[in-house]
Design goal:
Layout: H1 3-9, H2 16-21, H3 31-51, H4 65-68, H5 81-85, H6 90-114, E1 117-123, E2 131-144, E3 147-154, E4 160-168, H7 175-180, E5 191-198, E6 221-228, E7 232-233, H8 234-243, H9 250-269, E8 272-273, E9 282-284, E10 291-293, E11 300-301, H10 320-323, H11 332-347, H12 357-368, H13 373-379, H14 396-399, H15 406-415, H16 426-430, H17 436-439, H18 459-462, H19 469-472, H20 478-485, H21 490-496, H22 501-506
Antiparallel strand pairs: 1-2, 1-5, 2-3, 3-4, 4-6, 5-6, 7-9, 8-11, 9-10
């Protein structure tokens, strides 16, 4: 009980009922304000304890209201911090109790995360042979509309893994699981295992994470994808350089983008469109420089004649045909997204930062100019409204910094074309002169480390666009490449390729290297 309450009402406790009775009494002129303040405080405490206070700094000095305003709360939980301040010192006691509660939650989460969990899981590749897999040191590292991502350690090998937990609709097969089980490439994150679990409530979120997990229902089934763990993303690296007001070294940009295009060439040759290419989905091992494409939650086998949703792909990286509402698009939407990523790494910021779908198109028109009617028809034949102001295209040299290599600018221009079929293919991008430095013998990273393996092409990759093989593989490695893969020579592979990547983009329902149809 604060001194002000004792002096004002001669009370030994905060009797809210008593104060309510005297609120309109002229002998107690401040009673109405105090009653309102205590009611706010009571409601605030109820909401705060119901949702928990999400704040990483448990040693917040003197519980300053200004700092508390930056606490992240669950949507819908609007705690009135001014009410706490008006509670005449009671907030200090409330905060001390809450700190104890948060410490207990941390201890509980730590104990839950260190326990060993054993599940019956199926290997990601190969035959369905369920086996017991044990993991420990579980902690939440991310969440979103898709579900929750945990980091864990496999007990048998001490290898770190990422476990992506998503709600499984019992009526359908999980498209992401089906696609990932078919993919095996050095630049695509590997699916180690998968298993199903019931809707047990997850352990408490550690206090140093400002997120909440949705309550899970007991009768729901969840799919758990056990993936190889890679610590960084291209997004984090780009943001680090941007905050330091520096540009990413051009050799790093070449290394990252080359591996991205190589992964896209592989999945596109199988008729798979990722549909969410962005820096956040490009995992990066900072020690080796290896990039791996992840998050196939939006990916799909594109079949000619089968319609698709147009509201797909993150806005900054959304191809113009999607903005025009196309529902029969091709894998070239990934090529546009990759061009946006390349431009962003060169600029240090997104090239088309639209606030909405319409504004996104405006940002594109500012650079590329107004699309012609023929270009719009190529993007979406069903689009009939052509009411756009006529704006001339902006020279690419003026879009980028003065020291940007001309080969990089030329590659961006080839990627960011209105007409999907005119865009360069991923494998043609790998063969572009911008990446010639990677093919030079003895080239190293700025740190002095060697580049990761970049030319270990499989027979399937070499059969995608055989005419490019002489460029893709450095001259001194071509004979070794054929021997290592046990594949055909350059000439025989050219004659045995049933389809090129150009056809894969225009008709994703092509046959793969073995001749079987890709669904």
């Amino acid at each position: 009980m604060s001194v002000k309450f004792k002096d004002r009402y001669n009370l030994s406790c905060s009797d809210l009922k008593f104060m309510t009775k005297v609120a309109n009494n002229p002998d107690f002129p401040h009673a109405a304000e105090d009653v309102a303040a205590l009611r706010k405080r009571k409601a605030c405490r109820q909401r705060s304890f119901k949702y928990g206070l999400v704040h990483s700094d448990l040693q917040l000095p003197k519980c300053k209201q200004e700092k508390l305003r930056h606490s992240t709360l669950e949507p819908g939980c609007n705690v009135d911090l001014s009410a706490k301040k008006e509670s005449f010192g009671g907030f200090a006691r409330w905060w001390r109790k809450l700190k104890i509660r948060l410490h207990k939650r941390c201890e509980k989460a730590s104990k839950d995360g260190s326990k060993v969990t054993t599940v019956v899981a199926t290997p990601g590749q190969g035959p369905d042979r369920p086996q017991e897999v044990s993991y420990t040191d579980t902690k939440v590292i991310g969440n979103g509309s898709f579900g929750v991502v945990y980091q864990a350690k496999l007990c048998e090998t001490n290898e770190l893994v990422a476990i992506k937990k998503v709600l499984q609709d019992k009526r359908f097969k999980n498209r992401e699981l089906q696609i990932m089980r078919k993919l095996e490439h050095c630049n695509i994150v590997k699916l180690k295992y998968f298993f199903y679990s019931s809707g047990d409530k997850p352990p408490d979120v550690p206090c140093n994470m400002s997120i909440f997990l949705a309550t899970q229902q007991k009768d729901e089934v969840y799919l758990n994808l056990v993936l190889e763990y890679i610590p960084e993303t291209v997004y984090k690296v780009a943001r680090h350089y941007s905050k330091s007001k520096q540009t990413i070294p051009i050799s790093f940009i070449k290394l990252y983008m080359y591996q991205l295009f190589r992964s896209l060439a592989y999945i596109h040759s199988m008729g798979i469109c990722h549909r969410d290419i962005k820096p956040q989905n490009l995992l990066l091992d900072p020690e080796t420089g290896i990039l791996k494409l992840c998050d196939f939650g939006s990916a799909k086998h594109l079949v000619k004649g089968e319609l698709n949703v147009s509201y797909i792909c993150s806005r900054y990286y959304r191809a113009p045909e999607l903005i025009f509402g196309a529902i029969d698009y091709t894998t070239r939407i990934d090529v546009w997204s990759a061009g946006c990523v390349l431009a962003e790494l060169l600029l240090g910021q997104p090239i088309f930062p639209g606030d909405s779908g319409v504004d996104q198109l405006v940002e594109i028109i500012k650079v590329l100019g107004t699309p012609t009617k023929d270009q719009i028809k190529e993007m979406n034949p069903n689009y009939t409204e052509f009411k756009f102001p006529q704006i001339k295209s902006h020279p690419w040299q003026q879009v980028f910094r003065a020291r940007t290599p001309p080969e990089a600018i030329e590659l961006v221009a080839r990627l960011l074309e209105y007409t999907p079929s005119v865009r360069i293919t991923p494998l043609e991008a790998c063969a572009h002169p911008f990446f010639n430095e990677l093919r030079e013998p003895g080239t190293r990273l700025p740190s002095g480390n060697e580049f990761p393996p970049l030319f270990n092409f499989t027979g399937h990759e070499l059969s995608i666009q055989p005419s490019l093989n002489n460029i893709l593989i450095p001259l001194g490695m071509q004979s070794n490449q054929n021997q290592a893969e046990g594949g055909p020579t350059q000439d025989s592979s050219a004659s045995g390729a049933g389809a090129t990547l150009d056809h894969a983009a225009d008709n994703p329902a092509l046959t793969n290297a073995s001749g079987s149809a890709v669904a």
